[in-house]
């Protein structure tokens, strides 16, 4: 295989930057919003009134972003959009499997400070061992209603889940069994060292909350710029601090945490920014809007909580996307009849990572359908609708990939290996929009550090750009 093109490498390095800025779903949503606002998008508040009945002509070039907790939805209104212009939606998710900080998280055992954590989703537990980890998420002070009451926080390298030495478990290489409660609580300090620090601080007359004991919340409060006693709520996860890296022969690979599913969020963001630039140029042209109605209104919908079933106010099973689409309909002056016509002609691409054939475990894959990293994005198919792809959706995806000039391949599970699922079936069920499941083939899915081919995220972004331009909508 030839080395990645400069464009693919540039995309991979920008993806790495995006991942580093997004240790939690809340950070990911903020980074999406930051990049969009930097490009001229306007943030709309869910609690405020939105413009109504303005129509596509008045809204030409309008670009908006709405953030709800760890989820974000953004869209572009192209020149000439009507009350029945269909939506072209890219659905993805901002969360990843791992660990979440428990209530009363401060523990001291055998002279070690430990943080109480709960397993979130289905992580590969052993992949989190012996890594420098951080806490990241949001803390709330007061009643959470004032602008400064919600703060994003990250500690930097702070914790580690130490593995037991082979001398104390001679059979460890014959099969590791980790108890989710007993063996996954990270260490983050020493009681004796903390006592010495407390004495030093007291002598200096500058006692810090963090020297008072094994107080995880005091550590978070320090990084958030508040006092521990002010924190009234928190949603904090554990994240790996190792930076993403391009490596391998001819720079073939990208290794990173949270590729599942920031690779799709970033691809959708990249595509939306590109289409927004095209729309802005068209709406600002002296000749006015281009002839004919636009093919689609592109929408990026990045949800939280996919890894635990999506059943939340910011998950795909919640009303977030349906509510936003209804308010866009009202902005464009459409009624109930036009809304049904618009949704019937729309397309949603549910993008999440999938499995590349594993060279060490080839028997775990279907004998005929063998997607390979570097071979382009995958079309996910499942007879039991764990993926929602049907024949029309497959044809729509094929058109988008052909228009983008990128290869595509299929994925189906081996009959003896249970199939996962995505937000695709949830979105199709809630909205009735034709939905197709796609993704990027990776290795080490649900590991603290996953592996993709450098070219595939770029291929995915190019295909999604064509979807946003209208390839595949009816």
List the helices and strands and how they pair.
Blueprint: H1 6-20, H2 25-38, E1 42-43, H3 55-58, E2 63-68, E3 71-76, E4 87-93, E5 98-109, E6 112-120, E7 133-141, E8 150-154, E9 187-190, H4 191-204, H5 216-224, E10 231-240, E11 245-247, E12 253-256, H6 259-283, E13 297-303, H7 320-331, H8 336-344, E14 347-351, E15 354-355, E16 378-380, H9 391-404, E17 409-411, H10 424-431, E18 434-439, E19 441-443, E20 450-453, H11 455-469
Parallel strand pairs: 1-2, 4-13, 4-14, 14-18, 15-19, 16-17
Antiparallel strand pairs: 2-3, 3-13, 5-6, 6-9, 7-8, 7-10, 11-12, 12-20, 16-18, 19-20
First-last Cα distance: 36 Å
Main beta sheet, described? 9 strands, mixed
Please state the structural category. alpha/beta
The low-confidence runs, each spanning 5 or more residues with pLDDT under 50, are: 198-207, 285-291
Strand content is 15-25%
Form type? globular
How many helices? The count is 11
Rg measurement, Å = 24 Å
Describe this structure in words.
This protein has 11 helices and 20 strands. Helix 6 packs across helix 11. The longest helix has 25 residues, at 259-283. Strands 1-2-3-13-4-14-18-16-17 form a 9-stranded mixed sheet, with helices on both faces. It has 474 residues and is of the alpha/beta class. Helices cover 29% and strands 23% of the residues. The radius of gyration is 24 Å and the shape is globular.
Brief summary:
The chain has 474 residues and is of the alpha/beta class. The chain has helices at 6-20, 25-38, 55-58, 191-204, 216-224, 259-283, 320-331, 336-344, 391-404, 424-431, 455-469; strands at residues 42-43, 63-68, 71-76, 87-93, 98-109, 112-120, 133-141, 150-154, 187-190, 231-240, 245-247, 253-256, 297-303, 347-351, 354-355, 378-380, 409-411, 434-439, 441-443, 450-453.
């Amino acid at each position: 295989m030839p080395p990645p093109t400069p464009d693919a490498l540039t995309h991979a390095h920008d993806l790495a930057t995006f991942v580093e800025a997004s240790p939690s779903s809340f950070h990911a949503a903020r980074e999406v919003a930051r990049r969009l606002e930097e490009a001229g998008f306007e943030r709309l508040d869910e609690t405020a009134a939105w413009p109504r009945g303005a129509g596509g002509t008045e809204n030409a070039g309008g670009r908006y972003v709405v953030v709800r907790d760890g989820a974000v939805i953004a869209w572009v209104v192209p020149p000439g959009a009507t009350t029945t212009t269909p939506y072209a939606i890219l659905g993805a998710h901002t969360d990843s499997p791992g660990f979440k900080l428990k209530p009363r998280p401060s523990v001291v055992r055998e002279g070690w400070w430990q943080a109480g954590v709960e397993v979130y989703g289905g992580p590969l537990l052993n992949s989190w061992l012996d890594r420098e980890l951080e806490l990241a998420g949001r803390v709330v002070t007061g009643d959470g209603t004032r602008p400064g009451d919600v703060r994003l926080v990250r500690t930097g390298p702070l914790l580690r889940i130490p593995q037991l030495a082979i001398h104390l478990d001679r059979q460890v290489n014959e099969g590791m069994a980790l108890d989710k409660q007993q063996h996954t609580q990270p260490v983050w300090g020493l009681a004796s060292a903390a006592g010495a620090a407390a004495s030093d601080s007291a002598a200096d007359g500058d006692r810090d909350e963090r020297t008072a004991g094994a107080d995880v919340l005091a550590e978070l409060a320090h990084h958030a710029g508040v006092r521990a006693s002010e924190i009234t709520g928190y949603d904090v996860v554990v994240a790996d601090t190792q930076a993403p890296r391009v490596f391998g022969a001819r720079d073939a690979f990208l290794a990173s945490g949270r590729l599942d599913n920031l690779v799709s969020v970033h691809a959708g963001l990249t595509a939306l920014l590109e289409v927004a630039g095209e729309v802005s140029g068209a709406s600002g042209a002296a000749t006015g809007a281009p002839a004919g109605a636009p093919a689609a209104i592109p929408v990026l919908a990045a949800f939280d909580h996919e890894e635990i079933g999506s059943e939340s106010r910011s998950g795909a099973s919640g009303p977030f996307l349906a509510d936003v689409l209804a308010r866009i309909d009202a902005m464009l002056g459409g009624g109930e009849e036009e809304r049904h016509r618009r949704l019937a002609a729309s397309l949603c691409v549910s993008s999440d990572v999938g499995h590349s054939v594993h060279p060490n475990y080839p028997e775990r894959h279907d004998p005929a359908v063998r997607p390979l990293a570097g071979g382009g994005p995958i079309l996910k198919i499942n007879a039991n609708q764990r993926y929602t792809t049907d024949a029309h959706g497959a044809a729509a995806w094929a058109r988008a990939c052909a228009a983008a000039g990128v290869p595509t391949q299929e994925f189906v599970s081996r009959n003896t290996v249970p199939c996962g699922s995505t937000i695709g079936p949830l979105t199709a069920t809630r909205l009735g929009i034709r939905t197709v499941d796609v993704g990027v083939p990776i290795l080490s899915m649900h590991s603290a550090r996953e592996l993709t081919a450098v070219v595939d995220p770029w291929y995915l972004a190019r295909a999604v750009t064509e979807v946003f331009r209208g390839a595949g909508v009816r």
